[in-house]
Write a structure and sequence with these properties.
There is one protein chain. The protein is α+β, with helices and mostly antiparallel strands. The protein is about 25% helix and about 20% strand. The C terminus is likely disordered.
């Protein structure tokens, strides 16, 4: 860590996790004869021709405002933040995030701060965005600054200066911290997870509905930080066998892998691939808090039906270094999911390998099997549990023994649920069967009722890829990557484009349910356009085809693959949220319909709304809002979305895609689904 910066008795703190202050200079304030004030900037680099835009909460036409006396700051400073990868060969122009602390030389003094080298964020700050602060000791909770900031923008040179005032604490030892938005650092994450570890270690029973919780390190980042992955479920349908060690992953030898689960699909959620997008952490925390609620009926049902794999921080190095968008080598990690390098992009490499493993129902592809001597050789294409038990892999052997020891009642139950165990055994044994001819023909004899299983060609990578695209066969039910958003108001989702109306409406289902379960989620801002899957970022020339959302759909055929976006500041609207089945309908009249200023509580509520929305997707919600909505039922909602997607497909057929350039700091997209969204606002279908 670098040393703190001293300037005219003020101490500027920049030696902590996620801080990124680079330079401080004092501004001389001189009073002129006419009573106006001029500023003598010590740095000649600030000789820009700025277009001045002043944000004020008061009416300029108000005479009392004209006659009021403005307090003059006692001190003024120019501050420079570090660009992403500052001082390295990978330094780039991302400089939106800032985080630093100040101890004033004069308690109670009035101070003006100018952040002089930020990226242009005119739209966001013109809409009332304010930085956040806290004071230690005195005001330990983060809150938005009280006085609205001003900004000066030079469109020609793409420069932006943000200014705001603050009054120093009367406590001479107090430190005031400022940040672009509510921070959540790598250290904050580790402390948060330690608290969960301690809480879950006190759980004594292992009943079916008790919480199953497991934390492990999937891989180390380029700078040696943990990529934590959490597994949360219930003990219902827990296997006696643990997940496999995957090649090049799980470096901590003392950490065991979590247990496998029968007949439970995976829901895979991740956050903070872009380190400055801290709302994503609060959304994920809100969902984790829901899942770990032992008594909540929504949480109990979620844990019973699914296994949750959660990666809270995909870019721990960028977070710790105080970067806004990039990793430690100046790379946008959310463009590399199609072909990440385990050397250069270890965290994305680990995420992709885990997704492959869970997509294939815990089956390890050959390239993920650890490098260990293979002494098992089989020369036949069928196997018998009694005669050939020594000729299959240890992993498959354990599975077979597990099924053999099942009671008849358990076997019948498995068969009635779709013979998942049989399919699972078949998949697990694939790597142990001779593949000389490129075909495998199975007839397992460890299941009471044998059925013919189609031959599956495994010698051809294209055939494997084609088979993996069948979403219904995937072990993953849902994938969501959480983000923050600087320009487009509201909280919304990006989904993938589907020509088929059935698939298109299925993709819209979760976002629409989110708008029913959360007042701040904007379904009308969601984007399902094809061009939004392939846009080229203006700054780095990389395509969204390599983003998590698009790559997971392309690699695994997953329809329910999304990006969640949260504006840092506020939204455009507030939904009228219907009451739950077990809730007083008249409670709706107390709702406020003015969009709030977003804060961690708002983001956490969005995360919590994922729980009932996921259950609503399959009609499994024990306390749903759907019956009290205008759609009345899941069937009614699906019919409505099918109508919208069909009409949209017909109106946009043969319509050329609009050419759009997108920069990393302004991710607004011209949405061809706006036509459909207009229909959505008009259409009511019960």
């Amino acid at each position: 860590m670098e040393e703190n910066i001293e300037c005219v008795g003020f101490t500027f703190y920049n030696n902590f996790d996620s801080a990124n202050l680079a330079k401080v200079e004092k501004v001389e304030i001189n009073k002129a004869e006419n009573g106006m004030f001029t500023y003598d900037f010590q740095c000649t680099q600030l000789c820009y021709c700025f277009i001045i835009k002043i944000i004020s909460g008061k009416n300029e036409n108000n005479k009392s405002h004209k006659n009021s006396t403005l307090e003059v700051p006692s001190y003024e400073f120019n501050l420079w933040t570090k660009q992403d990868c500052h001082g390295t060969e990978f330094q780039n122009n991302n400089r939106t995030w800032f985080h630093f602390g100040i101890k004033a030389s004069m308690p109670g003094s009035y101070v003006k701060l100018n952040l002089v080298n930020l990226n242009k964020q005119v739209k966001m700050f013109s809409q009332g965005m304010c930085p956040v602060f806290k004071v230690i000791p005195g005001h330990p909770q983060w809150d938005r600054i009280k006085e609205k900031p001003t900004f000066m923008a030079d469109d020609k040179n793409n420069e932006f200066m943000l200014s705001f005032n603050y009054r120093a604490s009367e406590n001479p030892n107090a430190i005031t911290y400022f940040a672009f938005t509510y921070p959540f650092s790598y250290t904050d994450l580790q402390n948060y997870l330690k608290k969960i570890d301690a809480k879950m270690s006190k759980q004594n029973t292992h009943l079916a509905n008790d919480i199953y919780y497991h934390r492990e390190c999937a891989i180390k980042s380029l700078e040696g930080r943990r990529l934590d992955i959490l597994t949360i479920s219930s003990y219902y349908n827990k296997s006696v066998e643990r997940e496999a060690k995957i090649k090049d992953l799980f470096p901590e030898e003392n950490e065991e892998r979590p247990y496998k689960f029968y007949d439970k699909k995976i829901i895979f959620l991740s956050a903070r691939v872009h380190p400055g997008e801290t709302p994503s952490s609060f959304v994920l925390n809100g969902f984790i808090n829901l899942l770990l609620n032992k008594d909540d009926q929504i949480a109990i049902m979620l844990r019973r039906l699914y296994v949750f794999k959660l990666i809270p921080m995909l870019n721990p190095d960028g977070v710790a270094q105080g970067y806004y968008r990039m990793d430690t080598r100046g790379v946008n990690l959310n463009r590399l999911y199609l072909n990440p390098s385990k050397i250069d992009h270890p965290t994305i490499f680990a995420a992709k390998q885990l997704l492959r493993y869970y997509h294939n129902w815990y089956r390890l592809p050959e390239d993920l099997v650890p490098d260990v001597p293979d002494t098992n050789n089989i020369g036949t294409s069928t196997f018998d549990l009694t005669n050939n038990i020594n000729s299959i892999s240890n992993e498959t052997n354990k599975l077979l023994q597990r099924v053999t020891l099942m009671s008849l009642e358990e076997k019948n139950k498995r068969i009635e649920q779709g013979s998942r165990v049989r399919n699972y055994l078949v998949q697990a044994s694939e790597k142990s069967i001779v593949k000389n001819q490129g075909f495998m023909d199975y007839q397992p004899k460890c299941i009471d009722r044998e059925e013919d299983i189609p031959c599956r060609k495994i010698g051809s990578a294209s055939n494997i890829k084609q088979y993996s695209r069948i979403a219904e066969d995937s072990g993953i039910f849902l994938y969501v990557d959480f983000h923050g958003h600087a320009s487009k108001k509201g909280i919304f989702m990006y989904g993938n484009h589907f020509d088929d109306a059935e698939d298109a409406s299925a993709c819209m289902l979760l976002p629409k349910l989110m708008s029913i379960n959360n007042s701040n989620f904007h379904f009308t801002s969601c984007n399902f356009a094809e061009k939004n899957m392939y846009l080229i970022d203006k700054r780095d020339g990389m395509s969204r085809e390599g983003s998590g959302r698009v790559a997971v759909h392309k690699l695994f055929g997953l329809i329910h693959s999304y990006t969640l976006e949260c504006n840092y500041n506020t939204g455009r609207l507030v939904n009228s949220v219907p009451a739950r089945l077990k809730e007083n309908v008249h409670k709706l009249h107390s709702q406020i319909f003015v969009p709030p200023k977003y804060n961690p509580t708002v983001f956490e509520e969005v995360g919590a709304a994922f729980g009932p929305s996921i259950l609503d997707m399959t009609g499994s919600n024990p306390n749903s809002r759907l019956p009290n909505s205008q759609y009345r039922s899941l069937k009614g909602l699906k019919s409505y979305l099918k109508l919208i997607s069909t009409n949209h497909y017909q109106t946009t057929l043969n319509k050329p895609l609009l050419k759009v350039n997108v920069s990393d700091t302004d991710n607004d997209v011209i949405d061809v689904d706006d036509v459909a969204n207009a229909e959505i606002r008009q259409c009511t279908l019960c």
